[in-house]
Amino acid sequence: MTDEPGRPLGELRQGETVRATVTSHQPWGFTARLDAYEPVGASLDMIRRGAEPGVERLARQLPPVGATVDLVVGEVRDWHHEPWIWVDLTAPGTAEG
User: Fold this and answer.
1) For residue range 45-57, what is the model confidence (pLDDT) as tens digits?
2) How does the average pLDDT of the chain come out, rounded?
3) What are the backbone angles phi and psi of residue 33, rounded to the nearest 5°?
């Protein structure tokens, strides 16, 4: 792990591809840590997003905890007060037909 500070969360933009490390598996999908950013909780909800081609591929072969994967920022939402935010992730390739 690097000692460099992460990029500020204010730089996260919808549609941006990010590197993330899978931190846990959940019944609905998985949680991840965004590698280049300040610490923040992020998740990919496979139940809600499962019809998207990239997510469907991930669901067939769920990345193990500790794996680093490329994901796409789907939504960044503020919680009740900073610095808590929710980063909704999806997978690359969602525009495939």
Assistant:
1) 888 888 888 888 8
2) 82
3) -110, 130
Q: For position 84, what pLDDT does the model report? A: 54
Task: Select from 34, 46, 22 the least CA-distant residue to 87.
Answer: 34
Pairing mode, strands 85-90 and 29-34: unpaired
Residues 6+ apart with CB under 8 A from 3: none
Which tokens go with 51? 């019809």
The CA-to-CA distance between both ends of the chain, in Å, stands at 37
At 6, which helix (H) or strand (E)? none
Contact present, 85 and 9 (Cβ < 8 Å) = yes
Name 69's Cβ contacts closer than 8 Å, sequence gap at least 6: 19, 20, 21, 22, 32, 58, 63
What pLDDT is stored for residue 96 in this prediction?
44
3-state DSSP assignment of residue 23: strand
